[in-house]
């Protein structure tokens, strides 16, 4: 049987995060597949394999596309429809924006690995209420695009429910995975600080963690950077919270050590999946997390972590106090993480694509022979 020719699509290549880590796993699975993307900035993607074939849209040549690509949002779908996938048997789109709008031939298997429906269309902020009529129009167009993929895959039950709600489509859940050989417990963790590792941006709600730990006078270590770094440091200064430390970006070995020796990882944000709780649990450490989204699928409440129900300082404070009066076994945390291994993801994803390809070929054969 001839090996199918595969192409990958990824919304944009201009940063590093959980979605980009997932892309690297897909690149490992399909090393010969080129990557199509709306926007590509080589300076911001040193993590990509050298000599990887990248095909970017015409937006990449427009002014300010590297520094502020969001200004071209109204023409994203036009740019995507210019891509020619006629030479490929399988197109795999990993997307949280418009990657389901690609145009492929009927004989090409188009798989959409949906990280989330477009947040700006379905979860608009209150400040966009004047644009509600326009959002309805874009939602209708987005719904029509959902008929283009042959199959939807997704990263969690949380996102699967959204795909059903907004697109009326079923989706198969394939959880991303973590390299559990790297993340492992130590025999005598120090357990003398709390840890948060998210990017320092609005939606990660790091200010809640700062205020809660300052109120309780609990040691907190904050890693990573982001546009709120200066304002968050100013907040710590105003609170006179000498127990809170910013480390900025840390390398993998340092991050693993921080996981291994923390009291708990604190995750106050909503995530559609989220790697960090799995990494912490793989290191035998529990997680204090907001009781929404993908965290509910990766953390066992009162066994490998504690949930809090409201994104408020008081709710998080109560969760920390409850955590400190609860006993957690490192072995339980480690055991839970084993459900989300990278090896399981790689096997599951590749087998799913193979099965879908075989079914697609059979379906197409019946159509052409009838």
From TrEMBL:
<dbReference type="GO" id="GO:0016757">
    <property type="term" value="F:glycosyltransferase activity"/>
</dbReference>
<dbReference type="InterPro" id="IPR050194">
    <property type="entry name" value="Glycosyltransferase_grp1"/>
</dbReference>
<protein>
    <recommendedName>
        <fullName>Glycosyl transferase family 1 domain-containing protein</fullName>
    </recommendedName>
</protein>
<dbReference type="InterPro" id="IPR001296">
    <property type="entry name" value="Glyco_trans_1"/>
</dbReference>
<feature type="domain" description="Glycosyl transferase family 1">
    <location>
        <begin position="187"/>
        <end position="333"/>
    </location>
</feature>
<dbReference type="Pfam" id="PF00534">
    <property type="entry name" value="Glycos_transf_1"/>
</dbReference>
């Amino acid at each position: 049987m001839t090996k199918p020719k595969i192409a990958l699509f990824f919304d944009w290549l201009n940063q590093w995060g959980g979605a980009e880590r997932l892309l690297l796993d897909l690149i490992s699975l399909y090393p010969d597949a080129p990557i199509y993307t709306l926007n590509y900035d080589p300076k911001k993607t040193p993590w990509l394999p050298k000599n990887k074939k990248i095909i970017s849209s015409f937006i990449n040549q427009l002014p300010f596309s590297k520094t502020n690509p969001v200004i071209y949002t109204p023409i994203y779908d036009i740019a995507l429809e210019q891509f020619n996938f006629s030479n490929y048997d399988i197109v795999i789109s990993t997307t949280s924006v418009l990657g389901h709008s690609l145009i492929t031939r009927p004989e090409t298997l188009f798989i959409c690995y949906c990280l989330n429906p477009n947040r700006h269309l379905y979860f608009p902020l209150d400040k966009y209420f004047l644009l509600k009529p326009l959002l309805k129009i874009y939602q209708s167009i987005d719904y029509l695009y959902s008929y283009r993929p042959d199959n939807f895959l997704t990263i969690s039950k949380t996102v699967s429910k959204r795909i059903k709600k907004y697109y009326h489509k079923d989706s198969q859940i394939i959880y991303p995975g973590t390299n559990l050989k790297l993340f492992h417990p130590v025999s005598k963790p120090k357990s003398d600080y709390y840890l948060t590792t998210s990017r320092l941006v609005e939606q990660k709600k790091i200010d809640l963690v700062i205020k809660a730990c300052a109120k309780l006078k609990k040691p907190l270590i904050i890693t990573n950077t982001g546009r709120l770094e200066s304002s968050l440091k100013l907040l710590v200064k105003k609170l006179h919270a000498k127990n809170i430390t910013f480390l900025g970006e840390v390398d993998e070995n340092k991050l693993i050590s921080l996981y291994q020796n923390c009291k708990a990882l604190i995750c106050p944000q909503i995530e559609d999946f989220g790697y960090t709780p799995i990494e912490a649990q793989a290191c035998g450490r529990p997680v204090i997390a907001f009781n929404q989204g993908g965290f509910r699928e990766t953390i066992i409440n009162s066994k490998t972590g504690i949930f809090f129900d409201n994104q408020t300082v008081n709710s998080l404070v109560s969760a920390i106090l409850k955590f400190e009066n609860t006993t957690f076994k490192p072995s339980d945390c480690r055991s839970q993480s084993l459900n989300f291994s990278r090896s399981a993801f790689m096997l599951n994803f590749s087998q799913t694509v193979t099965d879908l390809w075989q079914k697609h070929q059979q379906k197409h054969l019946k159509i052409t022979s009838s």
